[in-house]
Amino acid sequence: MTRLLADPTLAQCPDFTSVIFNTSRAPLLSPTIDDAQAAAMLRTIWLATNTVLTKQWQRQLDSDARDVAEQQRLLTEDEAQRLAAQKVQDALFTEEERKKNWIHHIPIPDRPRPTRAAESILVADYALRKLDKAQFVELYYWTNKGLSNARSAFHTFDDDTMLPAAAADGSTVCTAAGVIADHLLTPLDFSRAVPRFIASLEQRGWVASRVRMLAQFFGGLMLHHYWTSDNQFEQRALLVYQEEQRRAWHQAILQPAGAWNISILDETEISRCFDRIYHAERVRIDHDFDLKVSPLHFF
Fold this sequence. Notes:
Blueprint: H1 22-25, H2 35-100, H3 125-132, H4 144-151, E1 162-166, E2 172-176, H5 187-203, H6 208-222, H7 232-253, H8 267-293
Antiparallel strand pairs: 1-2
């Protein structure tokens, strides 16, 4: 159907009795139909036609309204889908940014500075980075000396200051300058460092089961009968065992076979540690004795 370009309801019915419609009335004239009747017939035809056109116009308006509504619906749906996709993209971007810059998203409580009794211990950043990576880190950083160094503005630990050192098992490892290996700590320093170390694990968000396992590991060592022994080699054996096992445990976390419950002490391995220490001490004593009695000693 041809589309109407004008609203038929606004049209005015012409005066078909006027002179300008003489030609239009002429075909209708007959002995029985005069000018007035012909004009009335033309008016009736015009009104009927206008009524048809008015209905067509209304249908046209309704159709246009439906088309506009459908276009608006499609635009609304497209915009909703675009916004939803943008929201997902923004969320992914925000999450990636949060992961890359997680430290910037840590909430800061609105509270005054804690009292010294409640204040967290200040540990070297280098040691805390090791904890965040679940890597082995020496307990020295949690000893009185290590904490004192961390508080000093003139003393820092960094990867650039790493020096080769001998591990308890004889292998070469890298430690920060001035750091004392675990197996060389005094029992007093060890016992002071352990609870601070466990507190740092909790503060750095370690899984509770891992923190508990390590706490049980350290506790088991300090409850071992070697720990209260008068034999310094037995105490040293526990420190050697602690360092070797904890270093191996951290390395095993990323291995295919995974780590193990380090809190289950291996008495056989502890005895081996004691034997190695005792043997090394005997070798040292024999070596010192040989130097003393050597003929070269008298020249």
